[in-house]
Amino acid sequence: MNVIVFNRKTGAARQFDLTSPACAVGLVGAALLVLSVAFFAGGLIGAEWASSKPAAQLAGWSAELHQQQAELTGIRQTMRNKLDQLALRVGQMNADVLRLDALGRRLTSVAKLDQRDFDAAHGGGKAVAANPVSAPATAAEVPGIDGELDRLGSELELRERELVSLEAALLTHNLNQSLLPQGKPVDEGSITSTFGQRLDPITGRSSFHPGVDFAAPEGTTVMSVATGVVTWAGPHPAYGNLVEINHGNGYATRYGHNEKLLVKVGDTVFKGQTLALSGSTGRSTGPHVHFEVLRDGSVVNPSTFINRASRGSFVASR
Asked: Where are the domains of the chain?
C-alpha cells in the first residue's frame, strides 16, 4: 500500500510504501508516543479532579473541626476547674477575715481593754468590725474575681494593722499590770498582823504597823508581787534582811525579816520571782514575812493590792 504526500508550496509529490519495514516501525513508534502522552495527561487530570472533590474536602475540614472542638472543650474544663479552686480560695480568705475579727474581739474582752483605747490605737476611731463579707463564690459567679481579690487584700491588710495595734495594747496593758503590786508574797500563809494600829509584840504598847505580816515557816519562798528593780537587799535595823523593789509609777514594795536573800541591788525581778527565804531577823518574835506597799514614798494598806489578784486581772505569762 502506497501513500502519496503533496507539498503545497512546491507542488512536489512524495510517495511512502506503508508495507515497507522502515515505515511500519515509524508508524508504530508514533502511535506509542501518542498513547503515552494521552495516558500521562489523563492521569494528571484524574488526580486533580479527585483532589478537588467537595465531599473529600468537607470530610477533611469536618475532622479538623471536631479535633479543635475537643481541644476547646478540654481548655474550658481546665479553666472551670481553676476558677472553682480560685473561688474556694476566696471563700477561705473570707472565713479568715471573720476569724481574725472574732479573735480581736475575744482578746480585747479577755484582756479587759477599753474598746475606745484600742480604737484610738489603730487610728480608726471605730469599733473593730468586719466589713460585709460575701459567701464563697462558684466558677459561674466570678467574672469580677480580680475585684474580689483586691477587696479581700484590703480587708486582710486592715485586720493585720488592727491585730498589730491590739498586740501593742496588750503588751502595754500587760506591762502596766505586771508593774502594779498585786497578790501575796507567799503561796500559803495566814495574815497574823494587819495594817494600822496594833499592840507592839515586843513592847506591848500601841503602835502603827506599816504593813501586813504573813505566817511563814523558816525557809518559805518569798516572791515579788510585781515586776521592778531591786533598790535594797541587805540588813535593816527594824526589818532584818530586807528586800525593797521599785516598780515605777510611784510604787514600791518591801519584804522583811528574811533568813536568806537571793537577789541584789540593781537586779530586775519579775512578778512571781523568788526574792528570799523567810526567817525571823530584825525586830521579830518568830518566822514570818513582813510585806509593805509604798506609794510616792508613803505606806498604804497592802490589803487592797493583795485582794486585787483575786479579781482575775489579765497578765500574760512571760
From this structure: 63-179, 191-311
Assess contact for 175 and 116: CB atoms under 8 A: no
Q: Which amino acid is at 237?
A: P
Q: What is the pLDDT of residues 109-156, one digit of tens each?
A: 655 666 655 554 444 444 334 344 444 444 445 456 667 777 777 777
Joined together, the cell numbers standing for residue 85 give 479552686
With helix as H, strand as E and coil as C, how does the chain read?
Answer: CEEEEECCCCCCEEEEECCCHHHHHHHHHHHHHHHHHHHHHHHHHHHHHHHCCHHHHHHHHHHHHHHHHHHHHHHHHHHHHHHHHHHHHHHHHHHHHHHHHHHHHHHHHHCCCCHHHHHHHCCCCCCCCCCCCCCCCCHHHCCCHHHHHHHHHHHHHHHHHHHHHHHHHHHHHHHHHHHCCCCCCCCCCCEEECCEEEECCCCCCEEEECCEEEECCCCCEEECCCCEEEEEEEEECCCEEEEEEEEECCEEEEEEEEEEECCCCCCEECCCCEEEEEECCCCCCCCEEEEEEEECCEEECCHHHHHHHHHCCCCCCC
Best CA proximity match to 286, nearest among 198, 196, 171, 202: 202
Nine-digit cell at 66? 471536631
Q: What's the rounded Cα separation, in Å, for the pair 153 and 65?
A: 43
At the top level of CATH, the class of 191-311 is mainly beta
Q: What is the pLDDT of residue 131?
A: 43
Q: Give the pLDDT confidence of 223-237 residue by residue, as tens digits.
A: 999 999 999 999 999
pLDDT at site 65: 75
The least confident of 9-13, 15-19, 155-159, 298-302 is 15-19
Whole-number pLDDT of residue 116: 56
pLDDT confidence of 318, banded at 50, 70, 90? very low
